[in-house]
Amino acid sequence: xxxxxxxxxxxxxxxxxxxxxxxxxxxxxxxxxxxxxxxxxxxxxxxxxxxxxxxxxxxxxxxxxxxxxxxxxxxxxxxxxxxxxxxxxxxxxxxxxxxxxxxxxxxxxxxxxxxxxxxxxxxxxxxxxxxxxxxxxxxxxxxxxxxxxxxxxxxxxxxxxxxxxxxxxxxxxxxxxxxxxxxxxxxxxxxxxxxxxxxxxxxxxxxxxxxxxxxxxxxxxxxxxxxxxxxxxxxxxxxxxxxxxxxxxxxxxxxxxxxxxxxxxxxxxxxxxxxxxxxxxxxxxxxxxxxxxxxxxxxxxxxxxxxxxxxxxxxxxxxxxxxxxxxxxxxxxxxx
Length: 336
Hints:
With about 325 residues, the chain is α/β, with parallel strands linked by helices. The protein has 2 domains: about 5-125 and about 320-330, NAD(P)-binding Rossmann-like Domain (Rossmann fold, 3-Layer(aba) Sandwich); about 130-315, Dihydrodipicolinate Reductase, domain 2 (2-Layer Sandwich). The protein has 8 helices and 14 strands. Helix 1 packs across helix 8 and helix 3 packs across helix 8. The protein starts with a strand and ends with a helix. The mean pLDDT is about 95.
């Protein structure tokens, strides 16, 4: 089997670390792992297959010996470094929002639209974490019944903001228990024991950027005719996003057939037994590859309405795993 030189840009970040772990766990055919980060992190180490690997600087020339570059360095860095890497003949799979809506850049979830990879021009975008898990769950239903409308409310973990947000939730919780005043720096309000209907910045239409990502990315990847309404909420959970999804389909469906479709679909685990209080929980999905779906039930307020509860590890399937799966799919499609 051919092996590849793989760079991870932003190797010391939470998603970068998860990418390296995912590459190892899935036994990706790596010839050489090249961790890259900012200049101040030069010489630090990451661990891959029990070996310490030195971190190098993500800069011009760093990609000349790289086949695949997995990016998790933020949008500003990606705008500069991704074209540089592509010019040096590396295939970039970028986890930021920088390239997602560029019409020249495929936006891909392998379970949803792998064929879009065939038209890549050196840069491929990894979708937003909340969009990924939603579309994995909805793709089999759309193929069978044609979804017209989606209303989604997300309950997103603080790890979506990064390690500093996880540390703040931890410290705020400790301070609350100790009766101390809580420091607030990452979010505009206290996150511990709270829920913030505010993820990313507010747009002119009073939706947040996170909410509009779900709208626009769904149209680009699944179907431009689908109308989407999203409300994104940050909750005091360390890891794994949960979503309440309501859909309306064009065709009449049977709920039991919906469950069969989901059980047969790649990347989905149906966890749905109300009689035993069995449904997807954020704590049960941490470190797991699948998108978990439960609370599958008919919405009787509209014709052809369906409700479901969808949970996935936002650092795993919502970021690192999807990026690695894109690379795997490219190998399968003889694109690398």
